[in-house]
Amino acid sequence: MMWRRQPTGHAMRRYAPILLALLPATAWTAEESPPAPVTMAQVLAESTPADWRRPSPEDTLYLDIPGGRVVIELAPQFAPEHVANIRTLARQHYWDGLAILRVQDNYVVQWGDPQAGNPERRRSLGEAEPHVPAEFERDVDALAFTPIDSRDAYASQVGFVGGFPAARDPARAKAWMTHCYGLLGAGRDNAADSSNGAELYVVIGHAPRHLDRNITPVGRVLSGIELLSALSRGPAPMGFFEDPAHRIPITSIRLAADLPESKRVHIEVFRTDTPAFQRLVQARRERREDWFADPVGRIELCNVPVPVRLPPTGT
After folding, report:
1. Comparing C-alpha atoms, which of 254, 260, 256 is closest to residue 95?
2. By three-state DSSP, how is residue 186 classified?
3. Contact status, residue 204 vs residue 181, Cβ threshold 8 Å
4. Measured between alpha carbons, how far is 204 from 104 in angstroms, rounded to an integer?
5. Segment 116-121 long-range contacts (CB within 8 Å, at least 24 positions apart)
6. CA–CA separation, 42 vs 280, rounded Å?
7. Mind listing the pLDDT tens digit for each residue in 49-64?
8. What CATH number labels 57-116+126-263?
9. CA distance readout (Å), 130 to 13, 57, 296
10. Please, are residues 58 and 255 in contact by the beta-carbon 8 Å criterion?
């Protein structure tokens, strides 16, 4: 979700504090009244600079296709070896002139080398590693996990790690990134360790959570997802394009760190480790916009938005 920040200086209404999402309703006695509910728009309007962060340029990819630019944040905390390989490939301009090979309805967009299966014609990986280990999950202790109160069909606990939707299993002390809309993953063959980051996909449909812990997630789209989700679907099974002329060419993929400041997209992402984010989760759980006849009272992990915005011009 892209949200453009308005210039400062406008008067803001102040709303009473809201109960954090993880506190039970029984915390309020008969003599007390719970804080007035707020909307997501109000949470964002009342946010402070400390509630936002700018992704590291070393972890920001720009995918340029004829329709425009897709901004992606990489997740080295989940897949350090894959991300290192992706950085190397981007710096070698590996994907320039390759193509989006597959657009499957309600599932994924996938890109890479059309000749990857042909040893004589496939593009060289250069200095990138041809093989890296599978990185389906991580030790819980290696991640700063912010839980949300949500029932989940695939995990006992769900939440966020540095802006990325995630799940964890306390009994096994493992955590992993979840396949929500906009996730970037590394395609693989049947062998679990057959991905290296050269072939990538983005989820453009209903969250395929059955892929969790079966493939390596490496990041998520921050902006421009509509450029991928609106692409024409491939007619062949699994959305592949049978006619090479119908493939969508990749103009370039670059790391933000390798571009001058004037060429970067100075995007900001709402932090997921703050009280403001807990208020946002609660606002999305208890829908108080005028349109809602039923406030719902529940939320699923992949329905929790992590807003992004462009700062005012000149900042």
Report:
1. 254
2. strand
3. yes
4. 8
5. 116/198, 116/199
6. 9
7. 999 999 999 999 999 9
8. 2.40.100.10
9. 56, 25, 48
10. yes
Q: Does residue 213 surpass a pLDDT of 60? A: yes
Q: Which residues pair with 169 in a beta bridge?
A: 174
CA 191 to chain centroid: 25
Q: Which residues in the chain are classed under CATH 2.40.100.10?
A: 57-116+126-263
**Residues 123 and 92: beta-carbon distance below 8 Å:** no
Instruction: Give the Cα separation of 229 and 232 in Å (integer).
Output: 9
Q: How far apart are CA 68 and CA 281, in angstroms?
A: 31
What the block records as the tokens of 286 is 């208890």
> What's the mean pLDDT in 261-280?
96
Contact residues for 127 (Cβ-Cβ < 8 A; gap 6+): 88, 92
Q: Which amino acid is at 45?
A: A
CB 111 within 8 A of CB 101: yes
Cβ burial of 264 (10 Å; 0-12, 13-18, 19+) is middle
The amino acid occupying position 110 is: Q
Give the CA angle between residues 261, 262, 263 to the nearest 5°: 90
The residues that bridge with 240 in the sheet, in sequence order, are 102
Token code pair at residue 243: 């006619």
Which tokens is 200 given?
Answer: 């990538």
Can you tell me whether residue 83 is helix, strand or coil? helix
pLDDT in tens, 26-48: 343 444 554 567 899 999 999 99
Is residue 157 left, alpha or beta, with left meaning phi > 0 and alpha meaning psi from -120 to 50?
beta
Position 182: which residue type? G
Of residues 223, 209, 310, 307, the one with CA closest to residue 266 = 310
| Amino acid, single-letter form, for residue 86 | I
Instruction: Specify whether the CB–CB gap between 304 and 148 falls below 8 A.
Output: yes
